[in-house]
Specification:
With 146 residues, the protein is mainly alpha-helical. The protein has seven helices and five strands. The termini are far apart.
Length: 146
């Protein structure tokens, strides 16, 4: 188990079989960490739409998350597992299913889902047109190219 984004004090208290890594702003390091993982486990109890799930998918890594808020919106049956909130056994079962099937059997679907649904430029354009429709074309005209 590798936990990312921990303060040094917490890392010092981890059991020997859990690796703690401090927070990183390095895109290369994040890609490497996600890519090395068999699965990205996000047992969040409250979250509106965690981008970490999308980051994992973009590297071809399946996601296991609780059925919580917007955490489930990035995942489908081909890209990971959604388990009931607080269900540790469900996380273990999902992880073992990914391990047994092999990460590679999920990777292409994960990457495709991230690229097709969560492309930053395409979503920006979608929001731009939605806002333009909602508040009227006069307000947004000439501010941002369509």
């Amino acid at each position: 188990i590798v936990l990312v984004g921990l303060p040094k004090e917490t890392i010092k208290t981890l059991p020997h079989n859990i690796i703690g890594i401090e927070r990183t702003e390095s895109l290369d390091e994040l890609v490497a960490l996600y890519s090395m993982a068999t699965a990205f486990v996000n047992p969040t109890w409250v979250d509106n739409f965690p981008t970490t799930n999308i980051e994992a998918l973009a590297t071809g890594t399946p996601v296991i998350t609780y059925n919580t808020g917007g955490s489930i919106e990035a995942i489908d049956a081909h890209t990971g597992f959604i388990v009931p909130q607080g269900d540790i056994e469900g996380i273990i079962t999902a992880f073992n299913a990914i391990k047994q099937k092999g990460k590679q059997s999920f990777s292409q679907a994960c990457r495709q889902r991230a690229v097709s649904l969560f492309n930053e430029k395409e979503r920006f354009t979608d929001y731009y047109h939605l806002y333009k429709e909602v508040i009227g074309t006069n307000v947004l005209s000439q501010t941002i190219p369509a």
